Amino acid sequence: MIRISLETIGKRHQHLWTFRGIDYVFEEKTRTAITGFNGSGKSTLLQIISGYQQASEGKITYNYNSKEVASEKLFNLLSIGAPYIDLPEELSIAELIYYFTPFKEFQSGISIPAFLEISQLAHAREKSIKQFSSGMKQRLKLAMAILSDAPLLLLDEPLSNLDAIGVVWYKQMIENYASQKTIIVASNNIEDEIYFCRERININNYKK
Question: What is the helix (H) or strand (E) element at residue 42, kind and residue range?
């Protein structure tokens, strides 16, 4: 499984540090929440861990099955669900899955019909994604991330645009399909989004 080590990670914008000096190890199959006030850098740290952004200082080491993984190979080991991720809106769900799965497969037994049932989006299978509501798009992003056959799951404010029914669905998805994953969630919502995370990183402690 996957293990991630952060060594003195810092991020600077011009002359101001968003955070600095983060030393932390995400152990295999742990569930960790990144917390902090709005604008503190929760999403930024998550994106640095994913390789989408580069840290201004420090080092990240990824180990998979006790072997170090180069950052450019990390894509195969992680999935991410976040409201700022763009979807190809001209496609239907089936078309999206068709183009997506050659790069990252779903967990065993997750066919297109199974995906539609689990995501509760079967009623929209013929629609293009641009016709989806914001809540449907977020449900699709989360389902794609959680159901991926990747050991590392990154979630950024996963309940954005979801209603009360969506909150229940999200909790069921975590319990049913993410038990074997290392999970990192950027959020302050203890009751619904990060209730299952026993570990915490408070970005507010790394302001210098």
Answer: helix 42-50
